[in-house]
Amino acid sequence: MRVRVLTDEKAVARAVARRVEAAIRERPATVLGLPTGRTPVRLYRLLREAHLAGRIDFSRVSTFNLDEFYGLPADHPGSYRTFMETHLFAHVNLSRRRIHFLDGTAKDADAECRRYERAIVKAGGIDLMLLGIGANGHIGFNEPAASLSADTHLARLEPGTRRSNATLFGGRVQAVPREALSMGVGTILRSRAIALIATGEGKADAIAQALEGPVTTRMPASLLQLHPDVEVYLDRAAASRLTAR
Ligand code: GLP
Residues 125-155: pLDDT tens digits? Predict the structure, then answer.
């Protein structure tokens, strides 16, 4: 893992935006994996600005979002799809047919997960997977557990994860769905390159364990140690419990 510690959240967003810009410049038909959450908000703003300034052409780019709440229609105000429309999709020239999302309203969750895996393969696989991390070490909605699902699956959310997603639901934890569809750790690890992004003190423990602790399903982000091309972008606060620096 190549770890980059930057001064603050702004510097992290700038560095990741440059990484995305370079990937698209090198390969205009890049396939991106995308996260939601507070962490990538500033990054998405920079990507919008780069597009407006003519530095990024998204016309041939494909995107696959990591996860979506189960039971929510795409246009629900709390859905991850709505989040992505607000922060990125509505403002750039991505082709609608190249935006891929898990359908939270699918009756047959397993069939929907299989469809998503096939769509990723059909697109040629994910070139660059951008990832956030939960305070408990989750990636996507792969929560710490005795065992994990490799492929896209229906996941049960931890109470803490529901609490941290409550802002999307007007602060009401009860309104946050209990389940979500999520890429599996295997889906994530099949990406050609991965950029893990973490900012703030609240992520420092998870980052220390994920990067320096044992590889274990109890800390899902630690499985990223198995991938040959991972860049980790941290601000000083998120890097503060790393011992090797
Ligand atoms: C959410 C998402 C993850 C995200 C993480 C961190 O629950 N499912 O994909 O990386 O939690 O969120 P935040 O960036 O808001 O801290």
Answer: 999 999 999 999 999 999 999 999 999 999 9
Nearest CA to ligand 1 atom 13: 37
Ligand 1 centroid to 38 CA: how many Å?
7
Helix (H) or strand (E) holding 111: helix 109-122
Q: Which helix (H) or strand (E) holds 66?
A: none
Check: CB of residue 153 under 8 Å from CB of residue 184.
yes
CA-to-CA separations, 22 to 48, 50, 68, in angstroms, rounded: 15, 12, 28
Taking the domains of the chain in order of start, what are their residue ranges? 2-235
Cβ–ligand 1 contact at 136 (below 6 Å): no
pTM beyond 0.85, yes or no: yes
Concerning whether 235 is annotated as a catalytic residue, the answer is no
Give the H or E element holding residue 141. none
CATH class of the domain defined by 2-235: alpha beta
- 49 catalytic residue (yes or no): no
